[in-house]
Design goal:
The protein has 432 residues and is α+β, with helices and mostly antiparallel strands. The protein is built from 14 helices and 22 strands. Among the domains are: 98 residues, Rossmann fold; 70 residues, Dna Ligase, domain 1. The longest helix has 21 residues. The radius of gyration is 21 Å and the shape is globular. Bound molecules: adenosine monophosphate and glycine (GLY). Adenosine monophosphate binds next to strand 7 and strand 17.
Length: 432
């Protein structure tokens, strides 16, 4: 039996998922809402806002969609799953993504820190402050070891974390977030935590509420500048696999982090069906949770999903039917790298609408669209992160060289990319 699938979202992550799902013989019609110029070429884009659940529900019925894959965190945190489950006309539709309560793993840092503390999941020691305890918070950060990490409790589009280097800065940031409501509702509560020194990686699972499968891990490059400098972005590139994620290290991740997290969710009565993204710090070979996300990462998906050799739609259906316990995922042993081409000014203010040229000249890469739009017969920029160029290689060097060669061929006014994605790992693996 074939099925109609709707992917909610419009980034490189959703294009990468769409490309894989499209290859499945189980896929009849594929829709993306709202999608981008890349998804338009392989699926039907539906011009619907990701928070317009009523409209999403209506098209699911009209178009006989039976599987809904939710890409970004915002509709998950707003309860898209709860909306579908509460409507008898929509209850038959299977959803990949947790309900509002489960999505708090990402949408409330206070919730996730409490869960980790209660179930002894390794993470940085922390304390949460609110308007009522601001004064106490100020005294606390003044005495905290430096640097000290301050995190807005709620969703802040990746901007809610500040690593303060001085006590004065920490006091200012805490006051700004709580008293001045820097991130609105999201910073009514602030988590203050110790700084973990180590190397980061992203680990992903798909959980059906009972069992789970481990997806390939990845490393994301968050800073705008080469050599990991400048402000944080949504991600400037990624690589998978990660050489320091050895079988021994991943075993620790499973036993100390993944399984205790799933146990914690079950013990709290939270049925969790969907992806969990574990943002981890490897501190001298020991994994610590920096954050949870209730979805796949972007741009990590652009390297993780292309490495999936199994039928990705079959995997999602197995998840929806709670059959992941006898599901085995086949993964390519190749290395995948992706380089993100971004707009001038990103992650600050940037302009949109520039015509993109050179798309037809790239070879040996998968081009995933992030912020693009079809404008007549032109493809124009429509976001800060614009295109992700994914390449495969037997080594990191070979893959990144292809991603970078393709990046050079694509142009628009002000396009920028980091030329050093994954170079730190090449250095690491070259150490005898
Ligand atoms: P988050 O939004 O929680 O992923 O945080 C953004 C970035 O801040 C992370 O990717 C880390 O690089 C950094 N970060 C967050 N928490 C910590 C921590 N406790 N120690 C060191 N770095 C951190
Ligand atoms: N690449 C980090 C994220 O998706 O949050």
């Amino acid at each position: 039996m074939t099925i109609n699938v709707l992917i909610v979202g419009s980034g490189g992550r959703e294009h990468a998922m769409a490309a894989k799902i499209k290859q499945s013989p189980l896929c009849s019609r594929l829709y993306v809402a709202p999608g981008n110029a890349g998804t338009k070429a392989i699926a039907e884009n539906l011009d619907i806002d990701v928070l317009d659940f009523e409209h999403i529900g209506k098209v699911c019925i009209e178009k006989e969609i039976t599987l809904l894959v939710v890409g970004p965190e915002v509709p998950l945190a707003a309860g898209i799953r709860d909306y579908f489950e509460a409507d008898s006309n929509l209850q038959h539709i299977k959803i990949i993504g947790p309900g509002k309560v489960g999505a708090q793993l990402e949408s409330s840092k206070d919730f996730s820190k409490n869960l980790m503390k209660k179930y002894n999941i390794p993470t940085a020691a922390s304390k949460t402050f609110t308007t009522d305890t601001l004064q106490e918070g100020i005294e606390y950060v003044k005495r905290h070891t430096l640097p000290v990490v301050l995190k807005a409790d709620g969703l802040a589009a990746g901007k809610g974390v500040v690593i303060a280097e001085t006590h004065q800065q920490a006091v200012e940031v805490l006051t700004d977030m709580i008293a001045q409501k820097k991130f609105g509702e999201a910073s009514k509560k602030v988590v203050v935590e110790e700084y973990l020194q180590g190397i980061e990686l992203s680990v992903f699972i798909l959980s059906d509420g009972q069992s789970y499968i481990l997806l390939p891990e990845a490393k994301d490059y968050k800073r705008i500048g080469e050599g990991d400098t400048g402000p944080n972005t949504g991600g400037m590139g990624a690589v998978s696999p990660v050489p320091f994620a050895t079988p021994e290290f991943l075993q620790k991740v499973k036993h100390k982090i993944i399984e205790p997290t799933l146990h914690a969710l079950r013990s709290e009565g939270i049925a969790y069906s969907g992806f969990i993204f574990f943002g981890l710090m490897n501190v001298n070979g020991e994994p610590f949770v920096i954050e949870y996300n209730a979805r796949m990462g972007d741009p990590e998906t652009e390297v993780v999903w292309p490495r999936i050799e199994s039928d990705a739609l079959e995997m999602l259906v197995a998840c929806a039917e709670k059959k992941l316990n006898d599901y085995t995922l086949k993964i390519s042993p190749q290395t995948a790298t992706t380089v993100m081409l971004v707009a001038e000014g990103y992650p600050g203010d940037y302009k949109k609408g520039y015509e993109i040229s050179g798309l037809e000249q790239v070879e040996d890469v998968l081009v995933f669209h992030a912020g693009t739009k079809q404008d007549g017969n032109k493809i124009v920029t429509n976001g800060g992160r614009v295109l992700a160029l994914t390449a495969f290689g037997e080594t990191i060097e070979k893959a990144i060289q292809k991603s970078n060669a393709a990046a050079q061929r694509i142009h628009w006014s002000g396009r920028y990319y980091r030329k050093d994605i994954a170079f730190d790992l090449i250095k690491l693996t070259n150490i005898p």
